[in-house]
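User:
I would dearly like some help making sense of a protein record. Take your time, and here it is.
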Amino acid sequence: MKHFISTLLAVQGSLCSVLRKPEFTSKNSTVLNFDDVPTVKGLGHVPSPYFHLSFSNYNVLFPRDPALKDKITDDDLNCAVSAPNALIGSRSQLDPMRTSNVPQGAYFEVANASSLTEDGLYPHFTLLGFTIKPVSALPPGTLITVKGYSHARQGTLTWTVYFESDIRTPLLVKIQEFSKEDWNQLYGVEIVADYGEDALDWEFCLDDLELQFFKVAEEKLMTSRRPWYQQVLDSVQGG
C-alpha cells in the first residue's frame, strides 16, 4: 500500500481534531483513545511520552477529516472506534544494519522507566486489549502479528490474526483471552501487518489501547528512595 502519512504531515493547515481527555479509567485499567492529540489535515504526531509510553512508526489519524476524503475509503472511516481519533501504524523501513531482535514494526514501549518509578509505578505494564484492522483491505487478506517484549521471560509473546479481504470492521482484541497467555510485565509491544503472499508492509488502525500500570508497594517505594549507602548500612546492621 502506498503510504500517505509523511506527505500529509508535511502540509500545514488548520487544526481539525477535537480535544478530549487522553484516556479514561475503567476499574484498574486505562484505555488510551488518542482523542486529545491535535491533527492537521487529518494526521498528527503522537506526543512523547504519551501516558508513560513512547510510540514509533505510528501517527494519529482523524479519519473523517475532509482532507482525507480521497486518501482513505469509506470502509476505513470506522478506524476510530472511539471517535474522532485512532492510530495508524506500519513497519519501519528495513535497515540491513539492524539486528533481528530489534522491532521493525509499529512499536510502543515504556518511555522512561525512572519517571515511572518516581511516580510510584513499576517500570512495566500489562496489555489487556485494543481494536485493530488493516487499512483498505484487499484480496487475498492481511496477517497481523502482535509481539510482547518482557524482561521477566525468555523469548517474546506472539499472537496473530488473519483478516480476510471482506472484513471491514475493527476487531476488539482481548489479548489474554485470545492468546491464552498473560501479557504482563511488558516493556514494549510490536505490531506488524503483512499483506498477501509476499508479506508486503501494510498500514493498520489501532484504537482503544487498554493496559495497566501497577503501583509499587509503599514500603518498597520508601526503600527505593533511600540513598544506596543507607540501604547497604541497614543490610549490614541487620546481618
Observations:
- Residues 6-27, 96-100 have pLDDT under 50 and may be disordered.
- The radius of gyration is 20 Å.
- Helices lie at 5-9, 113-118, 175-179, 218-224, 228-238.
